[in-house]
Amino acid sequence: MPVKKKIPMSKSxxxxxxxxxxxxxxxxxxxxxxxxxxxGKTASAGRSEPEPSxxxxxxxxxxxxxxxxxxxxxxxxxxAMRGPDRxxxxxxxxxxxxxxxxxxxxxxxxxxxxxxxxxAITMINSRDLxxxxxxxxxxxxADQSADxxxxxxxxxxxxxxxxQPAYENLKRAIDLQPRNRLAARQDPDFxxxxxxxxxSRLLYPDKKN
Length: 209
What we know:
The chain has 9 helices and no strands. By secondary structure, the chain is an all-alpha fold. The protein has one domain (1-40, 54-209): Serine Threonine Protein Phosphatase 5, Tetratricopeptide repeat (Alpha Horseshoe). The longest helix is centred in the middle third of the chain and has 18 residues, at 86-103. Mean pLDDT is 76; it is low at 1-34 and 36-46.
């Protein structure tokens, strides 16, 4: 959940590399960036504005950053951090952290599950895995069926060496949104589980031994 994450989807890695994480809605990237699988939200009825591209989000974030509108800049850098271009995703992740440093003493107030998720992705990219898990669990408390959050939590746990809970949460994410299986196959943050038979069967259920 590439800087996943890894990953990024119905919501699913990046969340991330964070890593993680573009979103995996197209099934082309794991996370990450980190990662994160794409959101499961569907477009609302009627006309809607097209979402900005990864580079457009990054450039808008830079404009806002130079205008010292750090909260708005951070909100623009977050989707850029989950885009398919890993160089742009990495730069966006750095800018997110700079925005948060500028926000400084005012503190970062996270109110919604998505805000907790987005912040967790930056923590995964920074390898602050304890903080990432804290915010991912806060997001899950509000929505147990958020497959992209479960995916990012699995990424976080795998990176931390907690392979059994990582497997269980990844399985839940795949059960909720099968596209997460393809995202996980392509997600380098799951390399630590590559030799485990249960993980291999989860990702390649049709593969014969």
